[in-house]
Design brief:
The chain has about 325 residues and is of the alpha+beta class. It contains 6 helices and 17 strands. It is elongated and about 70 Å long. About 35% of the residues are buried.
């Protein structure tokens, strides 16, 4: 049972809870996921089963500005330690001015959110799974401990687009879609927006609509898997190649395929019917590629010009017929 299952994670489950559930249902121990979702968030969670776990790090394009898409609901007039409605309310600093939520307009929200578009930086919130000194930040926060600000690595992020799709003035809630790179904490966007608006704001709902090319339309609700057998779940799995669509492909002839499978450097094939050699602009030490022979995915290689160094061998083929 190898492949990828796109799960629509329900609210209240951690990403690890989803993995544990599937381990129990399938009997497969080697299961992992990409792109952790907060427990109260819902939506697309790609889960990798058995051999597919070896390609998790290659899911999606490197530095993709459209890696993730979310629909976020932001409530005005509140500020919490977790940047969402489930956290403890923070006290305002002495003398701090705050306008009322009913004084904020949709135009104000659109103007503030647009300032986050493009390249920027973000510091991970204390209630997050980022590790510092071998412990997750939320473990420090729950223990009432602080972390040296210098140890909180500011990360580079990119937000391609933020679009307000609804504003309910009576409920003081705005809903917006955000298309962004990996590593963006949407609840921190809400917290920062609330500060700029002058009324405070928190995330009150989050749905991940897309992750590394996998869409919510293709996601499977956990509830639909409750009564399914391992065989029925296996039938739902996508091929692991679907996680590697962004990598360049190279086909090897029989001799070089054997080299690759035995851990030795191989050379690109130039036989008729095979893709041409990688362009010089793509060449360079350490660039990952998909390596095939006779339409069989052998694994992931690192190429430098015509030379391919085996990185992860996924398939052992005793005899490969080439034409």
């Amino acid at each position: 049972m190898d492949g990828i299952l796109i799960v629509n994670k329900p609210q209240g489950m951690t990403s690890h809870d989803v993995v544990s559930f599937l381990r129990r249902k399938t009997g497969v121990r080697r299961i992992g996921h990409s792109g952790t979702l907060d427990p109260m968030a819902t939506g697309v969670l790609p889960v990798f089963v058995d051999r597919a776990t070896r390609v998790i790090e290659y899911a999606g394009k490197p530095n993709d500005p459209e890696a993730k898409k979310y629909r976020c609901t932001m409530r005005l007039g509140l500020s919490t330690d977790t940047h969402d409605i489930w956290g403890a309310e923070r006290e305002r600093a002495p003398g701090a001015q705050r306008i009322r939520p009913d004084q904020v307009t949709r135009t104000d929200i659109e103007r503030v959110l647009k300032t986050f578009e493009g390249a920027g930086t973000q510091k991970p919130p204390m209630y997050s799974a980022v590790k510092v000194g071998g412990r997750k930040l939320y473990e420090y926060a729950r223990a009432g401990k602080t972390v040296d600000e210098e140890l909180l690595r500011i990360r580079d992020i990119y937000i391609k687009q933020i679009s307000v799709i609804d504003f309910d003035a009576g409920a003081a809630e705005a809903t917006f879609d955000i298309v962004c790179s990996k590593g963006v904490y949407v609840r921190t966007i809400c917290d920062d927006a609330g500060r700029l608006l002058g009324c405070g704001a928190v995330m009150s709902g989050l749905v991940r609509l897309a992750s590394d090319g996998f869409l919510i339309e293709d996601a499977v609700p956990i509830s639909s898997l409750e009564d399914q057998t391992p065989e029925e779940i296996a039938a739902r799995l996508l091929p692991l190649e679907d996680a590697l669509r962004s990598l360049p492909r190279v086909d090897l002839d029989e001799e070089n395929a054997a080299h690759f499978q035995n851990g030795r450097p191989a050379q690109t094939a130039e036989a008729p019917g095979h893709p041409r050699k990688l362009a010089p602009a793509q060449a360079g030490g350490g660039n990952p590629i998909r390596v095939y022979a006779a339409e069989t995915l052998l694994g992931i290689g690192l190429h430098n010009g015509d030379i391919i160094k085996p990185h992860k061998v996924l398939k052992q083929v005793s005899a490969i017929e080439t034409k």
